[in-house]
């Protein structure tokens, strides 16, 4: 059971999560280095991408050891856990669940048998053809689920499915290359067998994955910020559709699938760390530019620009720079309340956002405010922020959002609300402003957001704003977080029916 340590989480309201990333992955091949510690710090830098569970697998060339648990990286690992993970290869994972529930058996890296040894796999992203992959696994196993590996022990993630499908072929390299042709959706993998580290990225390159160089080895990580923390220098992005193999002979690259880049635009808006670079563009610079563009598109007479801390900060700086309205800090975020694991009492719960944010009354009172946030999902957070600012004496509250209205769910690894829960689905900006209690509301345009990333529009996924999904989606009944749990229940029901059949037969005979 995870221990509360008061570490920061993204969530401003209990039960009102912002967009949640699916995961952070890390991999290292570095003889002579303490690879488990490098992975620990790499995951520490990627903690914002997943806070439900964390794990590291390490190999000394002979044997793979895995250590994983529910909770934050700092809660899961201590010195003795890390010292048990010896060797020169490691992969690590910080999880937010998008396929399969949030419980221990679904934590990563997943471990699976191979004809020539073992595979440990860490996955960022979400596959959309999980149903087809279940069928492929059943077909390869004579119609049965495997009786070994994590699937047989109740793991219900698309990652466990991929791990089971890698029990195939002469080498893990062959198995991965073959399997990439079957996978649809978003995947950045770091994986290893006893003596080799691999990385692979889907042909759309939806989630980021980068390659770094250590003096004595190589690092692969979800974000450049994770290279920085362990002293690795950035080499390049892992290309969409590429597989990388790193062993004692060095690094080899194969372009397994034709690249069709569709990087997630929401990484620039909110998901990635501001000190990360994606496709050569600083995330912080993108956010500042989004704020500038927002000021050009939605100007307003006001006295002060303030961010919703901390994710709205770069865009608020940009808005202030462009509009000439002074920038100020109007709210303080309590960094040490976030993840206490203690349910708030009813009195505390009613204070809502005050658990996390407190207004600076002397700065706010009597001012016409522009409040900058990165996105609106359900709107509950912004409604509470607006109310809190008015109670603190704000004369006017104008809300400006540095992404367009979120109207569609993400199936590639980001957990928004369902379509029905998205406030922009059915309401226009004026109605939403009324619902939030704001004097006005302005969203950046899709063109403005895309231009701020400095990426070609055709190289970005914007599906949660536009509804144009770059990887075709199957029937809605085989999509969603619980798709594998549902399949398992169906199979159990079928097995149960089958096991009852002879009884009915006997009864009939009798
Ligand atoms: S749907 Fe939105 S969050 Fe999901 S990958 Fe596309 S742009 Fe990113």
TrEMBL record:
<feature type="binding site">
    <location>
        <position position="311"/>
    </location>
    <ligand>
        <name>Mg(2+)</name>
    </ligand>
</feature>
<feature type="binding site">
    <location>
        <position position="373"/>
    </location>
    <ligand>
        <name>Mg(2+)</name>
    </ligand>
</feature>
<dbReference type="InterPro" id="IPR029057">
    <property type="entry name" value="PRTase-like"/>
</dbReference>
<keyword id="KW-0411">Iron-sulfur</keyword>
<keyword id="KW-0808">Transferase</keyword>
<dbReference type="InterPro" id="IPR035584">
    <property type="entry name" value="PurF_N"/>
</dbReference>
<dbReference type="InterPro" id="IPR017932">
    <property type="entry name" value="GATase_2_dom"/>
</dbReference>
<feature type="binding site">
    <location>
        <position position="374"/>
    </location>
    <ligand>
        <name>Mg(2+)</name>
    </ligand>
</feature>
<keyword id="KW-0328">Glycosyltransferase</keyword>
<dbReference type="InterPro" id="IPR000836">
    <property type="entry name" value="PRTase_dom"/>
</dbReference>
<feature type="active site" description="Nucleophile">
    <location>
        <position position="23"/>
    </location>
</feature>
<keyword id="KW-0408">Iron</keyword>
<dbReference type="InterPro" id="IPR005854">
    <property type="entry name" value="PurF"/>
</dbReference>
<protein>
    <recommendedName>
        <fullName>Amidophosphoribosyltransferase</fullName>
        <ecNumber>2.4.2.14</ecNumber>
    </recommendedName>
</protein>
<comment type="pathway">
    <text>Purine metabolism; IMP biosynthesis via de novo pathway; N(1)-(5-phospho-D-ribosyl)glycinamide from 5-phospho-alpha-D-ribose 1-diphosphate: step 1/2.</text>
</comment>
<feature type="binding site">
    <location>
        <position position="461"/>
    </location>
    <ligand>
        <name>[4Fe-4S] cluster</name>
    </ligand>
</feature>
<keyword id="KW-0315">Glutamine amidotransferase</keyword>
<comment type="function">
    <text>Catalyzes the formation of phosphoribosylamine from phosphoribosylpyrophosphate (PRPP) and glutamine.</text>
</comment>
<dbReference type="GO" id="GO:0004044">
    <property type="term" value="F:amidophosphoribosyltransferase activity"/>
</dbReference>
<feature type="domain" description="Glutamine amidotransferase type-2">
    <location>
        <begin position="23"/>
        <end position="249"/>
    </location>
</feature>
<feature type="binding site">
    <location>
        <position position="464"/>
    </location>
    <ligand>
        <name>[4Fe-4S] cluster</name>
    </ligand>
</feature>
<keyword id="KW-0658">Purine biosynthesis</keyword>
<feature type="binding site">
    <location>
        <position position="264"/>
    </location>
    <ligand>
        <name>[4Fe-4S] cluster</name>
    </ligand>
</feature>
<comment type="similarity">
    <text>In the C-terminal section; belongs to the purine/pyrimidine phosphoribosyltransferase family.</text>
</comment>
<dbReference type="GO" id="GO:0006189">
    <property type="term" value="P:'de novo' IMP biosynthetic process"/>
</dbReference>
<feature type="binding site">
    <location>
        <position position="410"/>
    </location>
    <ligand>
        <name>[4Fe-4S] cluster</name>
    </ligand>
</feature>
<keyword id="KW-0460">Magnesium</keyword>
<keyword id="KW-0479">Metal-binding</keyword>
<dbReference type="Pfam" id="PF13537">
    <property type="entry name" value="GATase_7"/>
</dbReference>
<dbReference type="InterPro" id="IPR029055">
    <property type="entry name" value="Ntn_hydrolases_N"/>
</dbReference>
<keyword id="KW-0004">4Fe-4S</keyword>
<dbReference type="GO" id="GO:0051539">
    <property type="term" value="F:4 iron, 4 sulfur cluster binding"/>
</dbReference>
<feature type="region of interest" description="Disordered">
    <location>
        <begin position="491"/>
        <end position="510"/>
    </location>
</feature>
<dbReference type="GO" id="GO:0000287">
    <property type="term" value="F:magnesium ion binding"/>
</dbReference>
<dbReference type="GO" id="GO:0009113">
    <property type="term" value="P:purine nucleobase biosynthetic process"/>
</dbReference>
């Amino acid at each position: 059971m995870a221990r509360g340590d008061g570490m920061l989480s993204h969530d401003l309201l209990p039960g009102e999560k912002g967009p949640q990333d699916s995961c952070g992955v890390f991999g290292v091949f570095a003889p002579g280095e303490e690879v488990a510690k490098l992975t620990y710090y790499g995951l520490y830098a990627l903690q914002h991408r997943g806070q439900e569970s964390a794990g590291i697998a390490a190999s000394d060339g002979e044997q793979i050891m895995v250590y994983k648990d529910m909770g934050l990286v700092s809660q899961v690992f201590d010195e003795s856990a890390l010292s048990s993970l010896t060797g020169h290869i490691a992969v690590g994972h910080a999880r937010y669940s998008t396929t399969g529930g949030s419980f221990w058996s679904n934590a990563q890296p997943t471990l699976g048998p191979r004809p020539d040894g073992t595979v440990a796999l860490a996955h960022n992203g979400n596959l959309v053809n999980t149903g087809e992959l279940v069928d492929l696994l059943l077909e390869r196993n004579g119609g049965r689920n495997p009786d070994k590996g994590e699937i047989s022990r109740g793991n219900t993630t698309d990652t466990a499915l991929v791990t089971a499908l890698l029990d195939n072929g002469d080498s893990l390299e062959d198995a991965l290359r073959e399997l990439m042709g079957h996978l649809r959706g978003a995947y950045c993998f770091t994986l290893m067998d006893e003596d080799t580290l691999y990385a692979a990225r889907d042909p759309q390159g939806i989630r980021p994955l980068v390659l770094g160089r250590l003096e004595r080895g190589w690092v692969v990580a979800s974000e450049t910020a994770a290279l920085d923390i362990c002293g690795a220098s950035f080499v390049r992005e892992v290309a969409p559709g590429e597989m990388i193999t790193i062993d004692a002979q060095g690094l080899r690259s194969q372009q397994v699938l034709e690249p069709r880049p569709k990087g997630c635009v929401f990484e620039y808006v909110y998901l990635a760390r501001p000190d990360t670079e994606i496709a050569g563009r600083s995330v912080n610079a993108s956010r500042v530019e989004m704020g500038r563009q927002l000021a050009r598109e939605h100007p307003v007479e006001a006295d002060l620009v303030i961010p919703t801390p901390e994710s709205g900060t770069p865009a608020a700086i940009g808005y202030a720079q462009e509009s000439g309205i002074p920038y100020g800090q109007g709210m303080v975020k309590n960094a040490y309340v976030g993840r206490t694991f203690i349910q708030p009492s009813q009195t505390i719960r009613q204070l809502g956002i005050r658990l996390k944010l407190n207004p600076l009354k002397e700065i706010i009172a009597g001012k016409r405010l522009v409040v900058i946030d990165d996105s609106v999902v359900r709107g509950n957070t912004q409604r509470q922020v607006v109310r809190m600012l008015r109670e603190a004496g704000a004369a006017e509250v104008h809300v400006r959002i540095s992404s367009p209205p979120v109207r569609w769910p993400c199936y590639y690894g980001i957990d928004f609300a369902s379509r029905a829960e998205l406030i922009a689905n059915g309401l226009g900006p004026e109605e939403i402003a009324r619902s939030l209690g704001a004097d006005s509301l302005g969203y950046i345009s899709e063109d403005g957001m895309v231009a701020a990333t400095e990426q070609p529009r055709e190289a970005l996924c914007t599906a949660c704003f536009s509804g144009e999904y770059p990887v075709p989606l199957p029937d809605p009944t085989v999509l969603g977080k619980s798709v594998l749990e549902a399949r398992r229940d169906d199979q159990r029901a079928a097995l149960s029916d089958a096991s009852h059949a002879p009884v009915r037969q006997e009864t009939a005979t009798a």
